[in-house]
Amino acid sequence: MITYHGMTPYHPLRDKEIVDLIIAGNEEAMLYLLYDRYENDLKFYAWRYYDSLTYLEDLINYLYIQFKGKKGDWQPLKSFQWKCKFRTWFCSVASHLFLEKRDELIGLGGKDGSKGTDGGDKPIPEPTSEPENQKLVMLMEAIDRLENDDYRFILIKELEGYNHKEIADMMVAKRKKENKVTFYKGNIVVPDAHYVDMNKARALREVKAIVEQIKKDWYENK
């Protein structure tokens, strides 16, 4: 089981600089890619193929082993030729591995029968285009960055398919469970469908601005 302790010295580094550190023996740099820089990408694939984050830790461990290779010398990373963006390749590897492991983890089987990501040292093909779900990945990361808990809760629950009344009821139950009370102009706020609708609009405005910053960060870092 691998663990991550929030190492952040790698944040200013470009992907290639981090990969060079990993190949040189710095395993913390690999954990940074898995648990920080590309955490939201991995969460997206976990949701996409498993409908939850229940297996995320297991999947990250599998991915770590995949990149390290059978001999522990990071040969799969060494095989990357930098002919496309590293994130594109990284996401492609993660997507195929997560899909392949479905049968092993929950018995649902893969959609395309992909095989061969067993920690071997064969070069992994480099994709030629950006992941098809890039916009959704950006959206998830933007939601995760929202500072307002209500904003995050509303958007996540709506993505899960709940209507505004259902979300309001869940917010009320959540506040009771956490023994939290929200005040506005001296009055207690009890979430209802109107409250959810109003705060969703505010949340989306913030998300739009955050997405633009994410785009800037991604493309400046590659």
Description:
A two-stranded antiparallel ribbon has the order 1-2. By secondary structure, it is mainly α. The two termini are 29 Å apart. It contains 11 helices and 2 strands. α3 (39-50) packs parallel to α6, α8 (134-145) crosses α11 and α9 crosses α11.
Summarize the structure.
This protein is mostly helical. The protein is built from eleven helices and two strands, in the order H-H-H-H-H-H-H-H-H-H-E-E-H.
Distance between the termini: 29 Å
Would you tell me the structural class of the helices and strands? mainly alpha
Shape: elongated
How many individual helices?
Answer: 11
Q: In total, how many beta strands?
A: 2
Please describe the biggest sheet, giving its number of strands, its sense, and whether it closes into a barrel.
Answer: 2 strands, antiparallel
Strand content is under 5%
Helical content class: 55-70%
Strand order of the largest sheet: 1-2
Oligomer kind: single chain
The Cα radius of gyration reads: 20 Å
Mean pLDDT, as a whole number? 81
Which structural traits does this protein have?
mainly alpha; 11 helices; 222 residues; elongated; two-stranded antiparallel sheet
Sequence-ordered SSE layout with sheet pairings:
Elements: H1 15-23, H2 27-37, H3 39-50, H4 56-68, H5 75-78, H6 86-100, H7 102-106, H8 134-145, H9 149-159, H10 164-178, E1 183-184, E2 187-188, H11 193-221
Antiparallel strand pairs: 1-2
Helix pairs in contact: 1-2, 3-6, 8-11, 9-10, 9-11, 10-11
